[in-house]
Amino acid sequence: TLNVIYEITCNNCPVSYNGQTFRPIHKCITEHERDYRLYQSPEGPSDQFSNKSAAAHHSRTTGHSIGWNNTSILTHTKSSRHLDLTEHAAIQTRKPSLNRTEAAPLCSPLWNPLLPKIASTFRPRPAGISLPSTTSVQ
Questions:
Q1: What is residue 106's predicted lDDT score, i.e. its pLDDT?
Q2: What pLDDT, on the 0 to 100 scale, is given for residue 50?
Q3: pLDDT digit string (tens) for 116-131?
Q4: Residues 119, 125, 129, 135: is their CA dihedral positive or negative?
Q5: Are 9 and 29 in contact (CB under 8 A)?
Q6: pLDDT tens readout for residues 89-113
Q7: Sheet of strand 125-126: strand arrangement
Q8: What's this model's pTM, rounded to 2 decimal places?
Q9: Which residue from 25, 27, 15, 37 is spatially nearest to 138, judged by alpha carbons?
């Protein structure tokens, strides 16, 4: 599925990450998971910006497992032009604790009154990700 806002969750605690992609969702989640595998060794980088994926960083620093295969699609947009505003609505209304707010898309505060209305259209559904079990949960 293209042009989606998605949510990745931790299997061990109630944290999540909301993101966007204009590419097929399985490619995006595979990249998050690959980042986890590349930086899972204790000798790997430890600061939060060494990992491109905030979910991978969480897993690496806490030892928690991430539900890559349980990724949800919150919504999709008709065009990639709407992704930034829709992701902004997801982050501002759902408050996913793994998101790095300094890296999130910035939208004019004029949009703030509409964010709850945008978020009310979210209908989470399984993304249908199926990564090999040896890499999906560690």
A1: 76
A2: 57
A3: 999 999 999 999 999 8
A4: positive
A5: no
A6: 999 999 999 998 776 667 888 999 9
A7: 16-21, 4-9, 72-76, 125-126
A8: 0.85
A9: 37
The two three-digit tokens of residue 121, written as one number: 């259209």
Q: Please, which residues bridge with residue 72 across strands?
A: 7, 126
User: Which burial class, exposed, middle or buried, applies to 108 when counting CB atoms under 10 A from its CB (0-12, 13-18, 19+)?
Assistant: exposed
| Structure confidence by residue, pLDDT tens digits, 32-51 | 998 888 875 555 555 544 56
Name the packing angle between helices 54-62 and 25-38 (round to 10°): 30
Number of residues assigned to the chain: 138
The amino acid at 92: Q
Q: Please provide the DSSP assignment of 68-124 as one string.
A: GGG-EEEEE-SSGGGHHHHHHHHHHHH--TTS-GGGSPP--GGGGGGHHHHHTT---
